Amino acid sequence: MTDDRLPLAELLAKAGDGDFLRSIAEAVVQMLMEADVEGTIGAGRHERNADRVTWRNGYRDRTLDTRLGSLQLRIPKLRQGSYFPPFLEPRKLTEKALVAVIQEAWIGGVSTRRVDDLVQAMGLTGIGKSTVSKLCRDIDERVTAFLERPLTGDWPYLWLDATYLKQREGGRIVSVAAIIAVAVNTDGKREIVGLHIGPSEAETFWATFLKSLLRRGLRGVKLVISDAHEGLKAAICRVFSASWQRCRVHWMRNALSYMPKAQQSMAAAALRQAFLQPDREAASQALRHVADQLRPKWPKFGTFIDNSETDVLAHMDFPAQHRSRIHSTNSLERLNKEVKRRADVVGIFPNEASIIRLIGAVLLEANDEWQIQIRYMQTEPMAALMSPTINAQTAQISTEAA
Fold this sequence. Notes:
It is built from 15 helices and 8 strands. It has helices spanning 8-14, 20-41, 93-107, 113-121, 129-147, 203-215, 230-239, 248-256, 261-275, 280-294, 299-312, 323-326, 333-346, 352-371, 380-386; strands at residues 56-66, 69-78, 157-169, 172-184, 190-198, 223-226, 243-246, 348-349.
């Protein structure tokens, strides 16, 4: 053990009143690290010992933010191997990505006042472009490997949803769509399988994204669940031989928009009864009954149900055990909230790469959490669903805007 540590009484005498507690905390934490690294090495400082496994190699500075203020620590370095104090938490990938995006915006001079305040609060003064580049490169490698990983096996269910973000482009602020794809495999496990950034949700945009999923190995898709994007509906017809389920939550909202507010509760209750039916035929009859009952007063409401009935009931052709999961994009809502929460911190992204860096990091961490959870769907009905002799009845995708 080293003998060059300051006794507590001497430290108290040297510390000023203003930074008394902070100085004590810095000294104690430094002592803990020195003792820990000596145990790792197998010898104390300047100690000759045949059992030592390596040698010291200087220090690296690290700031630890605490309630006492920022502690300036000197973390010992080793010639062979590495040492990181167990009481310090390495930053999660999402936090690193968030810091990298903020740094990049700040250096580029495109950040908002709120981002400038965050930079100062994080203590990110004196940032160099080389530092940002190194941090971004490390994150980009991990995010790219995740987003471009090969997809193996069959994925019968695919959810697609778009989130809109702000980005600077050519001196202007534009809105871009971030498309997130989630799928469930035949083992009942849910995974995030793709992210795509584009200027709009036109058919070519969707088709490009869906084709990229095919190239990575996405196959066996039986049902695609999304909102009623006309471009997406056309792209599904071109790329996948699959049914399309219109998100029931969004569909209900659209249907009620044709009713006076005073009548919406009554209409919603009637429509929900249709979705409680045991099979597609009974559900279809219930929807038609509601449409015919209310058509005389609200003809647009009846026409809407006529045109969208097939799309909103597509999930009824699939196993009953899965229907509660596949009738809407609700499974993406929590994920989208986390994406927006992170994106709102930045506000305006400096470029597309920064969007992929941050949102990709959020998706990577969410996907890792999903893998340690229980199965998202029951596996027993999967065998019948994927059997070549038993095919789900493909729903006809409406080409009319709802």
